[in-house]
Amino acid sequence: MKGQILVADDSYTDLAIIKGILSDYQVTTAENGEEAINKLKEFSEFDLLILDINMPKKNGFEVLEIMQKDEKLKKISVIILTNYDETENEVKGLELRAWSR
Question: Average pLDDT over the chain, rounded to whole?
Answer without folding.
Answer: 84
